[in-house]
Amino acid sequence: MADLVIKDLYADVETESGPKQILKGVDLTVRTGEVHAIMGPNGSGKSTLAYSIAGHPKYTITSGSVTLDGVELTELSVDQRAKAGLFLAMQYPVEVPGVSTTNFLRTAKAALDGVAPKVRTWPKEVAASLERLDMDPSFATRSINEGFSGGEKKRGEIVQLDLLDPKVAVLDEIDSGLDIDAVRIVAEGINRYSERGNHGVLLITHYTRILRYVEPTHVHVFVDGHVVEEGGRELADELEVSGYDRYLKAVRA
Ligand code: ADP
Ligand code: MG
Ligand code: MG
Q1: What is the atom index within ligand 1 of the atom nearest the CA of 49?
Q2: How far is the CA of 115 from the centre of ligand 1 (A)?
Q3: For the domain that residue 165 is a member of, what is the CATH number?
Q4: What total of structural domains would you count in the chain?
Q5: 86 and 170 in contact (C-beta within 8 Å)?
Q6: How far is the CA of 253 from the centre of ligand 3 (A)?
Q7: Ligand 1, from 12, 16, 17, 20: best to mutate by most atoms within 8 Å of Cβ?
Q8: Structure pTM?
Q9: What parts of the sequence cross the membrane (predicted)?
Q10: Which of 5, 31, 54, 220 could form a disulfide with 88 if both were Cys (CB 3.0 to 4.6 A apart)?
């Protein structure tokens, strides 16, 4: 099972002038095997949603719940949430100087599975995954994300997804900063993960471009801290034509 259930979620971001409410009653359920696209304009709170689910310390959940297969995540540490099966690909992946991709992923996998991958076979698995994402083998020994281009960081996030194999993947603007070939390669990586079965995907984006390659089962429009409309693929096509204008007008009215 890989069911992520978000119920009436409210969250604040920590700002210099105190907490600011960003999430205003998010309801969203991702069931096993589903691929949900969350689409919304800049500043609508999409990253806040991703960080709140993952437990980033700058975000405080003030009410509501997030469960993964029935386990309440909001009370857990970032590590415990990962252990429960949650994965977040951040909009701006973090550089970790001095830690190679191979070692970082081996440590993460050991922590998640409770067993360390075999030293002898692990580099082969990493190499194979890098190849699937069309990344140079040298990335295995480079410090994770350090000096990576924007696109390389995004591909690297999918390498992590591929190797760590979490239950549920929250992918925050995994398509931003990618050229058209890279969008396809990243999308294929998401599809491989999804098709492996027993996974759920929450794909946050504000462009429909990646949805040419990743077929969403559900599409949500996210404006002003909550979901304002839900539909299928046709909703993304509609947004491509009409944009977010009418939703924004409704918020301002
Ligand atoms: P999105 O990912 O949809 O572009 P974000 O979740 O990044 O939106 O941001 C939502 C809102 O929260 C924005 O208005 C943003 O300016 C605000 N915000 C986020 N972090 C901070 C912060 N540290 N201080 C003040 N405002 C913030
Ligand atoms: Mg943004
Ligand atoms: Mg964002």
Answers
A1: 6
A2: 38
A3: 3.40.50.300
A4: 1
A5: yes
A6: 24
A7: 20
A8: 0.96
A9: none
A10: 54
